[in-house]
Automatic annotation (TrEMBL):
Catalyses which reaction(s): all-trans-retinol + NADP(+) = all-trans-retinal + NADPH + H(+)
The keyword NADP belongs to this UniProt entry's keyword annotation: yes
Keywords: Lipid metabolism, Membrane, NADP, Oxidoreductase, Sensory transduction
Enzyme Commission designation: 1.1.1.300
PANTHER family associated with the record: RETINOL DEHYDROGENASE 8, RETINOL DEHYDROGENASE-RELATED
Keyword Oxidoreductase on entry: yes
UniProt-listed InterPro entries: 17beta_DH, KR_dom, NAD(P)-bd_dom_sf, Sc_DH/Rdtase_CS, SDR_fam
Positions annotated as active site in the UniProt record: 157 (proton acceptor)
Protein name: Retinol dehydrogenase
Amino acid sequence: MANSGQKVVLITGCSSGIGLRIAVTLAKDEKKRYHVIATMRDLKKKDKLLEAAGDVYGKTLMLLPLDVCSDESVKQCINNVKDRHIDILINNAGVGLLGPLESISIEEMKRVFETNFFGVVRMIKEVMPDMKKRRSGHIVVMSSVMGLQGVVFNDVYTASKFAMEGFCESMAVQLMKFNIRLSMIEPGPVHTEFETKMMEDVAKMEYPGVDADTVRYFKDVYLPSSTDIFEAMGQTPEDIAKCTKKVIESNSPRFRNLTNSLYTPIVALKYADETGGLSVNTFYNLLFNFGPLMHITMSILKCLTCSCLRRRTVSPN
């Protein structure tokens, strides 16, 4: 139970990665300003979180089961919170999907949207009425730079994040009238076990029904380039947790928060040309015409991006 003066923070998707790190970072706040409710679909996967939390578990951090794809689970989770009072909702639960479109079933695509889009909508719908009554609250959504700029072979995942960006951009206007803040956290590549395993798995997969050229472009061109980008520009879950903490502690939190300033020029390409040709042609050339040059550039960037610069990129300000 939260102590007087503590803000109640509910976080989805805390079994690993970014969600775990945000939960632990807030629960270990030196001033003990937060009572953290960390949630996950399967509580059998709680061990990593409890190990990272240490002695704050049972004090400033508690666990609840939550499946964001289930209306009943969402309602039950919020009902288990005292007075249904949540000051800060952090929507982190999400799934990825990578590969040639022809190899992805419609059911797989629906699964991504069910978690990444409708899962967030369910959570906001459930907590928003109480926040409106109190005229207070902060909703944080873990989006992605892919919600701002499309990335080849990430078509469906990107679409789910674009949908979330549009939804939140619309909701933010209404919520402002009720003194409820809405913030998007937009990381680029993040080093997590999930991302590593997904990249390894897709590299080994066969893609029946997909033409040989597309498979070759995916495995021999996209995947090596993606690995270069991860190594040169990737952040850690701890970086994203620090950025998220700064956002919720800001007196005037921004709506959009790119966690990695190295991505700012990439996103800017899209808005520099209203026809869209500049960004599409740039990414085409980088991937298919200047692959070796891109590899060299990423290698140089990896050397230049010292830990000092990486620390500077985590601040939303």
